[in-house]
């Protein structure tokens, strides 16, 4: 799967929809989107500033990265707690990572089964599968 952000902060998705990784809840799990679907709405009125795709999950910074209003949203396969919601449940639609509400997230990167964020203050947070030390 692939996601991209245009100059206006609109998020587009295409590719394999298994486990909800595209964030398009109406997409059947077995359906592959061969071209971008627009727009993928996350939070009303806020543009997306960063997006990262893992093997079967996705994360996006909604709002201006590093600002006090920026929020991290994740969706897709929940296995290994890679989404940051405190459960292994899949999320077929974008969901805000509430534990980072007080943090000013400036960047995000998804690995195969883990997620890492960097905050303005220099703090780094990682979660998900750590069998090879990928979470640090």
TrEMBL record:
UniProt keyword annotations, A-Z: Repeat
InterPro entries for this protein: RCC1/BLIP-II (IPR009091), Reg_chr_condens (IPR000408), Ub_ligase/GEF_domain (IPR051210)
Family matches, as PROSITE patterns: RCC1_2 (PS00626), RCC1_3 (PS50012)
Superkingdom of the source species: Eukaryota
RCC repeats: 9-64, 70-121, 122-136
UniProt-listed Pfam families: RCC1
Keyword Zinc-finger appears in the UniProt entry: no
SUPFAM superfamilies: RCC1/BLIP-II
Protein name: Uncharacterized protein
Source species of the chain: Guillardia theta (strain CCMP2712) (Cryptophyte)
